[in-house]
Amino acid sequence: MDMKLGIGLYRHMLKPDYFQFARQCGCTHLIIHLATYYDSDSRIVTATDASTNYGHSLAMDPAWELDNLLALKKEAAQYGLAIYGIENFSPADWYDVLLAGPKRDRQIEHLKQIIKNAGKAGIKAFGYNFSLAGVWGHQKKHAARGGAVSTCFDASLLDIQSPVPNGQVWNMTYASPDGGFLSPISHEELWQRLRYFLERILPVAQEAGVEMALHPDDPPVPVLRRMPRLVYRPELYQRLIDLVPSQANKIQLCLGSLQEMESDKPVYHYLDQYLAQDKISYVHFRNVKGKVPCYDEVFIDEGDMDMLRVLKQLHQSSFDGVLIPDHTPLMTCQAPWHAGMAYALGYMRAAFQILEKGGNIE
Q: Of 96, 162, 255, 280, which has the fewest beta carbons less than 10 angstroms from its beta carbon?
């Protein structure tokens, strides 16, 4: 089988015009985001608003119910698209899993049901990011070619040790703040929390036919906001793989995040290492210039990584998972996001076709 071209769509994008756009760009698969954030009246709010809102019970969000997953899958299929994976739990559904709090076991049972429903719906992958500080501190700059707006990180512009308030995890507020801050923990404690989660979720995922795919840290620094990080160097993915051996224990290969990391060897070495173990679930295909503590996310054909070399490695290893563009720069036009995505997808589709026909893309 061949590599699959996909696109990531957030919950508000799961509608016909985005499905049609994806198919027109040559996509056959989707990675979807269903995570939501709630205010104190249980009203859904956007992620950008969620930092000032809180309150959520463990009642199943209808979006995660099997019937709704099947309905969404059927709608996407009308446009020639298959749902390959879901990315991210809602922070309010698993904050005590991350914090080792009193509701941890109850929340894990809730997550198990979500994974079971995904499996019954024929959804192969579930991406997650086991992080306390989450994705934080990025800036928008005109850093990509031609002055396109892109996501960047410059630690010198931030107080990266600003503490995380109590009641907040992953930059989202799940409970009324009390004026205090999360107590720092060790890296070993965070790895133990991950082990606790995986020992309980992986048997369920494996039985359901779902791959649990861990996203690396972004930004990939050892400590952020006084909280330890898990996979902030490429070799730490091996620790995840060995932590709880399971066919369902896989990695979400974010190429940009790996390239941003300080490392002893180039990305291509680690890519071969994880491909040889069949541990890559799906791929975030993006390029960057620079490394921590300062880097810029750019167009896929202008960064420090040889993306054609990466595609050739994946193809030669018979990787048949999904690749999606990620964090594409915003182009100067009436549809900045669409143009940036279309540019990346066109590049990827052309390279796929050359490889499939036995051509050389070096």
A: 162
Q: Which three-class secondary structure state does DSSP give residue 272?
A: helix
Report residue 8: phi and psi, to 5°. Answer: -95, 130
Residue 182, amino acid: L
DSSP character string of 123-156: --EEEE---SS-S---EEEEEEGGGEEEEEEEGG
Nearest 10 degrees: Cα torsion 140, 331, 345, 27: 90
User: Which residue, chain included where needed, has tokens 């036919």?
Assistant: 209
Whether pTM > 0.70 for this model: the answer is yes
Whole-number Å distance between alpha carbons of 13 and 9: 6
Of 202, 214, 194, 207, nearest to 280 by C-alpha is 214
User: Measuring CA to CA, which residue among 291, 274, 268, 204 is closest to residue 239?
Assistant: 274
Helix (H) or strand (E) holding 337: helix 336-356
Ramachandran angles phi, psi of 261, nearest 5°: -75, 150
How many CB atoms neighbour CB 247 within 10 A? 12
CA-closest candidate to residue 81, choices 18, 167, 164, 137: 18
pLDDT band at 303 (very low <50, low <70, confident <90, very high): very high
Q: Cα separations (Å) of 238 from 163, 214, 313?
A: 29, 12, 19
Q: State the virtual CA torsion across 91, 279, 326, 78 in degrees, nearest 10.
A: -90
DSSP string, 296-324: EEE-TTSSSS-HHHHHHHHHHTT--SEEE
Q: How far apart are CA 26 and CA 286, in angstroms?
A: 18
What number of H helices and E strands is found in the chain? 10, 18
The β-bridge relationship of strands 44-45 and 287-291 is unpaired
The DSSP secondary-structure symbol of 63 reads G
